Amino acid sequence: MPVSVISKPSGSQxxxxxxxxxxxxxxxxxxxxxAELAESTGLAKSTTSRILSALERNGLVRRDPAGFVPGDVFxxxxxxxxxxxxxxxxxxxxxxxxxxxxxxxxxxxxxxQGLVEQIAQVDSRYVLGGTSWLGRSEPVHATALGKxxxxxxxxxxxxxxxxxxxxxxxxxxxxxxxxxxxxxxxxYAVAQEELEEGLVAVAAPVRRNDGVVVAAISVSGPLHxxxxxxxxEVGAQCVHEADALSAALGFxxxxxxxxxxx
Length: 262
Known about the structure:
alpha+beta, elongated, 262 residues, two-stranded antiparallel sheet, single chain, Arc Repressor Mutant, subunit A, 8 helices, Beta-Lactamase
């Protein structure tokens, strides 16, 4: 009778050890040395060397002059162009939780060619506010999602005159800078009747493992349902879910030393 893999705990243990080393390399923002990997995992140097050699043979890690970095397999996967699709899949549970708690429209937005584009949505439970934003591109200076990218330095304010979308749109650069400072201080952005009259949106940043903001989560609805207290409540919820999603993407808030980090 062939020996079952399940009956050999050492096989499972080897996979766990390899996975631990691989996660250390992938999560790092710089090449990781052999000594750092052995120390952080608590593995014997001989075991660490054997596993890293196997990972290298299979293209999962690569030796760099400064240490180990993710291998060609990860580069090939990134070049397939599925990053946003994968992000939507990972983000869906977090968006759905916000939708259940608020009954309002929840969106996941990314920056594309200087504009904000919504790539995922959880629909509002209300008749009023049930607009589909999927695929729509909006200016960064007049949206909560866009203000997130501006506040954390991923996007820049368009040159020239800013577009007036409503009488409430912030057009003065000094006023916009002050608003973005508030965004960084409290950890979430607010756009109150700046894109459309009667529309309020709140958004918080989603970060990848190196701390760069790659997306934002927003909750939006009509003005009469978004008083000051409700905006603060929804803002805190957005930050909570965005932070949880960021952690799922490998971001460790304890290691974030950037000014204005929420």
